[in-house]
Amino acid sequence: MSEISIKKFIEGIPKAELHLHIEGTFEPELMFEIAKRNNKIISHASIDELRKAYSFNNLQEFLDIYYAGANVLINEQDFYDLTWAYLTKVHEQNVVHVEIFFDPQTHTDRGISFDTVIRGIHKALEDGKKQFGISFKLIMSFLRHLDEASAFTTLEQALPYKNWISGVGLDSSEIGNPPSKFERVFEKAREEGFLTVAHAGEEGPAEYIWEALDLLKITRIDHGNRCLDDNSLVQKLVELQIPLTLCPLSNLELKVVKDLKDHPIVTMMNRGLLVTVNSDDPAYFGGYMNENYQSIADALQLSKKQITELAKNSFSASWLTDKEKENRITEVEEYFKNN
Ligand SMILES: Nc1ncnc2[nH]cnc12
Ligand SMILES: [Zn+2]
């Protein structure tokens, strides 16, 4: 059997994406198309101008542009098209399972109904399952810069769609909006049967990861980079095998790391943390799943064995059933043996 290149190896390996904001997949081309049919004005004159504005010094600078982009999404079909474009893209990249976030408040605060948003997204996910065989889970994320009352209202709106939503998350501006602000919302969400995750330790301190664990009872941490500041926290995450959904290109673009050579993913693997590779907001950060794997493999000279470990982690950290996980992990191991 001839050895394939790392690039080809990454392209072909079956993988899951566990940290993806559907609003963050909104490519400028589709944004202009949807804006036109909805008679919405985009403040940048062209697709090129808009892409040029994608240069960020921190999370907040990105969020301002990301929320502005989402303003052109009005109809169920818009949410369908957005989700369908993402699925088409990742299908080409051998992503076989996705657990994606949507931010209802970004839309309901503009007068778009919860129903419109979730129906469009869910229909595309169902079609992706039928046409591409991509399995999925949907995660509803609360915006942490908004108040507890708004999160409670959103949770109420979600209850009729319980069967479509596997879990709840927490995203947006981290610093100054600790997980503790949403302790009661997450308690209610868990009572209603939702699994919980939270962005923590992206820009915020290790303390926020402790809060996500202890107060929100999360099953997974999104990002979690800053756990390395606290040895006892690392020990806890290793002991409980709490997965971290890392996002290398996002970290680079939002200046969480200066250079991908400084990215903590290998240190984390070596310390026994269960880490995964994800794209976060690929339309804004210059790459989908394979580009994330590739950039980290280049920067840190990852071996095929390490890449295989990351792909296996993407399934073990997922919300698939134990049997589904086992089957996917076997597929990845077979791929490694053959390539
Ligand atoms: N990387 C990120 N951090 C926090 N909130 C987000 N919303 C979309 N992407 C995000
Ligand atoms: Zn994110």
UniProtKB/TrEMBL annotation:
Signal peptide: none annotated. Binds 1 zinc ion per subunit. Pfam families: A_deaminase. It is an enzyme of class 3 (hydrolase). Zn(2+) binds at residues 19, 21, 199, 280. The record marks 223 as: Important for catalytic activity. Its EC number is 3.5.4.2. The keyword Hydrolase applies. The active site is at 202 (proton donor). It catalyses: adenine + H2O + H(+) = hypoxanthine + NH4(+). CDD domains: ADA. It comes from the Bacteria. The keyword Zinc applies. Belongs to the metallo-dependent hydrolases superfamily. Adenosine and AMP deaminases family. Adenine deaminase type 2 subfamily. This is Adenine deaminase. It comes from Aquimarina celericrescens.
